[in-house]
Every structure is written in C-alpha cells, then in structure tokens.
Automatic annotation (TrEMBL):
The keyword Chaperone does not apply. Coiled coil: none annotated. The lineage of its organism: Bacteria, Bacillati, Actinomycetota, Actinomycetes, Micromonosporales. Belongs to the Nudix hydrolase family. This is Nudix hydrolase domain-containing protein. InterPro entries: Nudix_hydrolase (IPR020476), NUDIX_hydrolase-like_dom_sf (IPR015797), NUDIX_hydrolase_CS (IPR020084), NUDIX_hydrolase_dom (IPR000086).
Length: 149
C-alpha cells in the first residue's frame, strides 16, 4: 500500500545460537521500554538493504556483512497510528559482538537472548502484542536451518 511506512529488521545471531535484542528507551513514542530487534524505517532514496545496513550500524556500531535469508514480512500498526510493512532478515555482521554501541537516547540495554527466553519479549507490551516474539522465534528457526544447511 502506498501509504504504509516501509521498515526493515535485523535478526543477528551469535556463535552460541542466541539472538541480539535491545530495550527501547522509556521515552520512545513507539513501544517505550520494550525489547526489540535492530531495525527501523526505510528513508527516502534508500533501498531496504541500504536501510538495513544503516540501522545495524546506527543501533549497534556493527557492519552488515551479509544477508543470510529473509525471515518474514509483516504488516502492522503501532500505537502511533501509521501502518507499516516490515521485512525481517537473518544477517551476519562484523564487529565486536560483546560490545555493541547502542544508539544514545534510543536503546538503553541489550542482551543475547536464548530461544527458551522468548517470553521476555512480551515484557512491557500490550496484551496480545506478540509480533516481536514471533519474529525472533522465526529468526531462531531460520538460523537452525542455516546451520543445518
């Protein structure tokens, strides 16, 4: 749809089979204080992959090395009103995975999430808001397929 905002998300796995998530600042208008994946809006003149690389660097300090696979595509509407169309990618990055550089004022903490910790992603979300949990679960499944590949 022409009036949808275009978004991208990055699912970043470490060597131990965990996924990177960060907590949004409590002052953010959209999903304050919630755990989320790296990503954001595609800006004018950008391709989705350009936006993916930019968001990874802005939110972690890491660099996009390669896209492993598309994990999923979703339409959703946030608590701020606009409809969004999001594509999520399992990616590999370069940089020190033990020392991400969070985007000041936007993310306040991070963690490497094990698959049995997915319920944590529902913290501070409205009842029934399980899309992020579903996206990360799909990322774990894609990473398993890739390792088995």
């Amino acid at each position: 749809m022409a009036d949808e905002l275009r978004c991208v998300g990055a699912l970043i796995a470490d060597g131990a089979g965990r996924m990177f998530v960060h907590r949004r600042s409590p002052t953010r208008a959209l999903f304050p204080n919630c755990w989320d994946i790296v990503g954001g809006h595609v800006e004018a003149g950008e391709t989705p992959l350009d936006a993916l690389a930019r968001e990874i660097t802005e939110e972690t300090g890491w660099k996009l090395a390669r896209v492993v696979t598309v994990v999923g595509e979703h339409r959703w509407v946030g608590n701020d009103g606009p409809a969004r169309y999001e594509t999520d990618y399992l990616v590999e990055v370069t940089g020190d995975l033990a020392a991400p550089r969070l985007e000041a004022g936007k993310q306040v903490e991070y963690r490497w999430l094990a698959e049995d910790e997915l319920d944590m992603l529902s913290e501070h979300r409205e009842t029934g808001d399980i899309l992020t949990r579903q996206i990360v679960a799909a990322g774990f499944a894609a990473a398993r397929r890739h390792r088995a590949g």
